[in-house]
Amino acid sequence: MGPTFRRPRRRRWASLLGATVVAVTAGGALACPAGAAGTNVDFDTHCIPPAIAGIPPIDGTTTANVSVDNASPKVGDTVAVTYEVVTPAASNPTDLALPADIMTPTGKVTLGGAQTGDVTVAGPKKNEPVPGKGAFPSFSMTGTFKVTKAGAITLSPGDYNIHTSYLLELDTPCTVTKPPAPVSQTVTATDSTPVNQRAITLGSASGNAGDSVTVNGTGFTAGATVTLAGRAGGTQTGDTATVTANAQGSFSGSLVVNDKSTTGIVAYEGASWNADKGAGPAAYVVNDTTPVPKDSQKLTTTVKAGTLSMSQAGDAVSLSAVDFGKGGASTGALKTVTVKDFRGGPAGWSLTGKVTDFSGPAAKIDAGKLSWSPACATKAGSPSTCQAGSSGSVGSSGATLASTPDGTVTGGEFTVDAGLSLDVPAFTPPGAYSAVLTLTLT
After folding, report:
1. What one-character DSSP code corresponds to residue 306?
2. Residue (of 275, 273, 284) closest to 227 by Cα position
3. Which of 244, 200, 241 is CA-nearest to residue 224?
4. Per-residue pLDDT tens over the stretch 238-258
5. Whose CA is closest to 288, among 296, 275, 298, 279?
6. pLDDT for the residue numbered 92
7. What is the helix, strand, coil percentage profile of the chain, to 5?
8. Do residues 271 and 252 lie in contact, with contact meaning Cβ atoms separated by under 8 Å?
9. Residue 124 lies in a domain
């Protein structure tokens, strides 16, 4: 009697385990981050239930889709990937219904083309109840990868695993029979343009014709040959010298200034002036030492050059909240920045910004997810006109917020603003996230 009772119970136990562990899905479809949707692709899949289930391997066809939040990233950006199994390779093989929220999926997305490797993805422990003999619903897994190479990068769905927490903790791995699976998504990465951090300062702002002026530079390419040159407005004079940047990209050199029309001094890498690889002009004046005629008096006055400065209306910005599971744009506005350029001379200025990653309680949001839409206004009567930087990602490498060009006479007062938007990936863990946006005026 006893053995007769226990044997059917063991069969029911095995069936129950089998119904759980061969479930090659993990619940209803989840929200994908906004971005580029991929193409549904089919591929042969081999799923192996745990031995305890007593069920043979399942060979079937998986239909899947890979989507991304940014199909045109720059090198250094972090791309969010969503791997959706639209149709799993198997359905519930038993008459036993499966309860909700017992399955947790993990997997990988295969990269190809300009960048190779695998992206690890995972989904939440979330599934709808599955009736006996019923079809399994779709499920989604998410992950990220950092772009390291420019060019076309392909994304193909890869192997996935279902971990079940029902009676026992068990895994059912499903592998691509003939890897790689067809390409579902392609992103085209471009080289990022670094912000020019080169800067120079002068040992003096004026001198007599033939005097030597000290030029100090920072932010140049280590070991680069740097040309020091005089400028008369927008034209280079014949006064030049060369110096070599040290391992830290700094230098200290001297330039003999003979041209009396000199209004500034520049430093640059390469054969000729290039704003992307140079710094300046720093204002410089050659003293007028012309003798005074007999029975005459030379009258002079001085307009004192001021400084280039900025101030902020505040140092804290609260972005709008987003919902867990949906993600999306967390928006706000930069505190107004006021720039005062009272230096005189021919040099314009550039205001750049870079941001750290957003740190939270259990995760981080990549700095590349923050973008801005700059705006700049010029106070009436200012010699220069402010130009707003381009809208786009800020990131850890930085971007230009606003600037004014070089000119014969520059200066003025300016106000700079920007709309801010942080693209929060779906299923970012709840909590407060913070980052530091650093502004640099040169």
Report:
1. -
2. 273
3. 244
4. 999 999 999 999 999 999 999
5. 298
6. 62
7. 5, 45, 45
8. no
9. yes
